[in-house]
Design a protein that fits this description.
356 residues, Rossmann fold, 8-stranded mixed β-sheet, two-stranded antiparallel sheet, 40% helix, globular
Length: 356
């Protein structure tokens, strides 16, 4: 379903990226005041990092590794600490459809058929929930006037690859099968997520175009209109890139806990499996993907993975809008503290999803 990105999206990418991350035939309009944007991003990110408890990443890594050895107690405590019930804006209706699906719709939308973003939370495949991504999902629904279907998927290491991927595919099947019930525009179903959730969204899209079934139902290859990815994991191994080395400690996602996440989710699978590491997908498979909007943090070990992924997608002929928020750090979608980065991401996603 090819379409051109709007001037607004191109402007965002031109203004906030630290590299030439958008490749389009359309020209990019000039953007003013980039420095002041980066200054705000840096100030908020630095304050956010100072607010994090000392040793938090190490304790979380140890909890994951203990769970890999069979002791889930510490990991369950981490999950509980990140699972506070959300506060939903008054002009958004939140409905728990089941234990694994929560739907957000603007209160004023009535029975109108809306574009829908199926959203997969982050958390290294090991923690996170539909509560942890609620702030983003609710704000996007409110600001964009779209439906957002948040998904709880089985967590590693108890449920390694491909359990979370299968749940992601089932969520797409659920949205297709129940579009009439919940007022989804069946021609405008998008899939997205942050970090590990971004990995699952991209992997699920690859699985769909390759003909993989969701349970007993085979999903149409054109089921998805677009993908929305925030700092996604696309290589489930230590890639030793410049960003991995520069930001591997003290920037919201340490390399050691990322290694633990990768190991916990991969289990016995090959880390180079394209449905585990989408960067490894064949060009022919990538070429079948819908348009992609990707937003990365400039000070994040996953930044260079996203740059490499955007390059591969463009080479395969996929429309890609990749923006890098220069001084932002990991977690700006799900953990409060980087408000400007959060708002920029919501604004860009809103425009992207509502383009005709």
């Amino acid at each position: 379903m090819p379409r051109k990105f709007s001037a607004y999206l191109l402007a965002i990418a031109a203004a906030i990226s630290v590299s030439s991350a958008v490749s389009m035939a359309a020209s990019r309009p000039a953007c003013a005041d980039t420095l002041s944007v980066d200054t705000v991003l840096a100030r908020e990110a630095d304050a956010f990092l100072r607010s994090l408890p000392e040793g938090l990443q190490k304790r979380q890594e140890e909890a994951v590794r203990r769970a890999m050895a069979g002791d889930d107690a510490a990991l369950e405590a981490v999950r509980a600490s990140r699972n506070a019930p959300p506060q939903i804006p008054a002009d958004v209706v939140s409905t728990d459809i089941s234990e694994i699906y929560r739907l957000y719709r603007p209160a004023s939308s009535g029975s109108a058929r809306l574009p829908v973003l199926i959203y997969l939370h982050g958390g290294g495949w090991c923690f996170g929930s539909i509560n942890s991504c609620a702030r983003f999902c609710a704000e996007l629904s409110r600001r964009a006037g779209v439906a957002v279907l948040a998904v709880d998927y089985p967590l590693a290491p108890r449920y390694p690859f491909p359990h979370a991927l299968d749940a992601s595919l089932e969520a797409v099947g659920f949205a297709l099968a129940n579009a009439g019930t919940y007022g989804f525009d069946i021609g405008r179903i998008s899939l997205g997520g942050d970090s590990a959730g971004g990995n699952l969204a991209l992997a699920a899209a690859l699985a769909i175009v390759s003909g993989r079934s969701a349970g007993d139902a085979r999903l149409p290859a054109d089921a998805l209109r677009s993908l929305v990815l925030f700092y996604p994991v696309v290589k489930a191994w230590s890639d030793r890139s410049e960003s991995w080395k520069a930001y591997g400690s003290g920037y919201g996602l340490d390399s050691q806990i990322m290694d633990a996440f990768n190991e916990a989710y991969a289990g016995e699978a090959d880390a180079r499996d394209p449905l585990l590491s989408p960067f490894c997908a064949a060009s022919g498979s990538l070429a079948q993907l819908p348009p992609v909007m990707m937003v990365s943090a400039g000070r994040d070990i996953l930044r260079d993975q996203a740059v490499d992924m955007a390059s591969r997608l463009r080479e395969a002929g996929v429309e890609v809008c990749h923006s890098i928020l220069p001084s932002a750090v990991h977690l700006f979608i799900t953990v409060p503290g980087q408000q400007r980065a959060f708002e920029m991401a919501v604004d860009a996603t809103s425009t992207f999803l509502t383009e005709k």
